[in-house]
Every structure is written in C-alpha cells, then in structure tokens.
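Hi V.,

Quick status before I head out on leave. The structure for the redesign project is tokenized and pasted below; the design run finished overnight.
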C-alpha cells in the first residue's frame, strides 16, 4: 500500500485511545476545561460508570458560537501560543481532548459566553459534526458525553466493571476539587449527590472530601527551598489506609499522579508505618513552570522535573520533619472541621 495521510476522523480515533483511556480521563479533561474557563462552580454528573453518560456544567467564560466548531477540531486551542510551550499556565494546552472524545463517543457542547443572546449547541458523534443550533441555556458551558467508546469497540472491551469505572470517575473529580478548592464543586453519581461543596480554603476542602474523622487527624505541612514550595496536609503514622486512594498531589494546581512524588511519600513513611499501609496526604507543590515539563504524556498527569532530586529530598525531608518532632506537630495544629 502506498503511503498516504490518514483521514482526520481516523487520527482522532487513534488519539482518543491515548487521551481518553477510560471514562475518568474524559471527566478529568472536561473539568479541566471548565477550570481553565474560569468557572466558579462546576457540576459533574456521572451515570453508568461514565460509559453511559458524563455531564460537566460550568459557569465559566463560554465558547463563542463562532468558535464552537474549532473547539472540537484537533490541535485547536485558545490556551497556547506556539511560543508558550515552555511556560504552561493552563490545565489544557494540546487541543486534543474534545476532538478525541468526539471521535470515541457522542459529544454535545452547549455554550453561552457572557453577552451572547442565546446558547449555541454543537454535537459530534464518531467524528461526524452536526449543525450549530441555538438553544436556551445560562451563561457558561455544558459538555455531555454519551456512549463512550461506542465508536471504538476495541477500547470498550478493556473497561472494567461499571462500579470500578464509577470509582475512578469520582476519584478524578475529588482530585480536581482538591486542586481547585476555591471553586464550588458538585458531584452526582447515578442521580445521587456524592458531594456539593462551596468555594473553600484548602483546609476546609480537605475536611469536606476526606471526611471528618480522617481530616481531624491530619497535620499541616509547609516547606520551602529556593523557589520550590510544598504545603498541605499529611496523616500521622498512626493514621493509615489499606490503599493509597487518599493521597492527592497537586503540582502548580494541576492534579497529578506522578511516580516520583508517590515514591518520595512512601520513602518518607517507610520506617514508621507497617508494610502494606498507606498514609493520607493532600500536598500542593509549587515550582517555577520552566522547571517542569507537563507534556510527557497526552493525559498530562505525569511530569518531568528539571531537578528531580531537589523535589524528592524537599518532600521527604518535610514529611519526616513533621512526623518526627512532636513540637513540629504542635506548631502545625491538627486540622479542624470548619477551621481556617
Ligand atoms: P485544550 O483544553 O487543550 O485547549 P480541548 O480540546 O480540551 O483542548 O478544548 C478545546 C478548546 O475549547 C479550548 O482551548 C477552549 O477554548 C474551548 N473549551 C473547551 N471546553 C470549554 C469550557 N468548558 N469553557 C470554555 N471554553 C472551553
Ligand atoms: Mg482541555
């Protein structure tokens, strides 16, 4: 067969496999878009493990009717200039999420920027794009994803049970809600409210999402070295869990699942907690963007640090200092519900 360029729909379907590994990845991309749009409140509804339906509604800046078609076009983004790849300040920048979702599922966008008389609606299913039609809707954007992977049955086969996809979707929303504590968040799963929290400070958000008992045991942590800062909350050695599900890392407000940070946390606790147990941690790392590469993987949750040893030792040192000295714990008061 001679060499030829693939059709855009095929390219999007291939990319969808990388960007949207499972429903939770679609949830993450849509909520990140809402945060990038400056939303003050984000409501997420997940039905049938996110395979049947995902709906993310925000009150952010919206997409002008004239740009709706571009929003679902590959490599089209309002967030990145070609020069800015070294200093990424938004959660999205690759312009891949919406076209990838639209290639694998039925995607509907309803959006109304401030000043636009009505909302406009566009739909894309298996890569085929609808006409744009006017609809009534408040300011902001709703993204609705239905029948995820119906157009990519090979991927659909690899999904786990509806229950475990639901858990993964809820974990993704929780992680984003921690990363953006100053934004109100609501999550509803199969018609039942899972949480509904106002804009909060980090302390109150951790308490709301981790639950009263866990949150009250947590210890505040703060560490600075040159231009790297780590702050947040960790559990004392006496409070552990059987899984690492209560460990959330945010780097420059981006929720990440970074192996280096996870391992550093494990090392920090290694000598004080039993094997097979995991501490609780919600940690925010702030680092100059030029010391960080977030463009390692299409899902953007892994990082490359320019100075990994500095990050690792700062985190390990900070955790061990806060665990070891009772004075340190006293100086950093335990988390109180409603406090701060
Ligand atoms: P990226 O986020 O990498 O730019 P996406 O495919 O996720 O790529 O989105 C494409 C574009 O659509 C964004 O750059 C943005 O301009 C617009 N967009 C997507 N979702 C929203 C939203 N919820 N509110 C406002 N604009 C949005
Ligand atoms: Mg995006």
């Amino acid at each position: 067969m001679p060499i030829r360029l693939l059709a855009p729909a095929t390219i999007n379907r291939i990319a969808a496999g990388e960007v949207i590994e499972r429903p939770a990845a679609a949830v993450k991309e849509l909520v990140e878009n809402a945060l990038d749009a400056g939303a003050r409140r984000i409501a997420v509804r997940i039905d049938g493990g996110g395979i049947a339906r995902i709906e993310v509604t925000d009150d952010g800046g919206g997409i002008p009717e004239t740009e709706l078609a571009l929003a679902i076009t590959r490599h089209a983004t309002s967030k990145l200039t070609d020069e800015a790849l070294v200093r990424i300040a938004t959660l999205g920048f690759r312009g891949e999420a919406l076209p990838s979702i639209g290639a694998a599922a039925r995607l509907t966008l309803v959006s109304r920027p401030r000043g636009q008389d009505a909302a406009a609606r566009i739909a894309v299913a298996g890569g085929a794009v609808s006409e744009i039609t006017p609809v009534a809707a408040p300011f902001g954007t709703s993204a609705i994803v239905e029948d995820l992977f119906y157009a990519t049955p090979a991927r659909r086969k690899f999904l786990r049970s509806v229950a475990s996809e639901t858990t993964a979707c809820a974990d993704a929303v929780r992680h984003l809600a921690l990363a953006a504590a100053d934004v109100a968040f609501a999550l509803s799963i199969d018609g039942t409210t899972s949480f509904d929290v106002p804009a909060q400070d980090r302390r109150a958000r951790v308490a709301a999402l981790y639950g009263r008992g866990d949150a009250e045991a947590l210890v505040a942590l703060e560490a600075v070295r040159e231009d790297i800062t780590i702050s947040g909350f960790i559990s004392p050695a006496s409070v552990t869990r059987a899984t690492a599900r209560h460990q959330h890392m945010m780097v420059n407000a981006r929720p990440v699942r970074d192996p280096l940070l996870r391992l550093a946390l494990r090392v920090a606790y290694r000598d004080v907690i039993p094997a097979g147990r995991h501490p609780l941690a919600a940690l925010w790392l702030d680092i100059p963007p030029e010391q960080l590469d977030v463009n390692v993987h299409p899902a953007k949750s892994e990082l490359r640090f320019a100075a990994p040893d500095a990050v690792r030792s700062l985190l390990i040192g900070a955790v061990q200092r806060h665990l070891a000295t009772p004075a340190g714990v006293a100086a950093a008061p335990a988390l109180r519900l409603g406090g701060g």
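Above is the designed sequence. Confidence is low (pLDDT under 50) at residues 326-333, 336-340.

G. will cover questions while I'm gone.

Best,
W.
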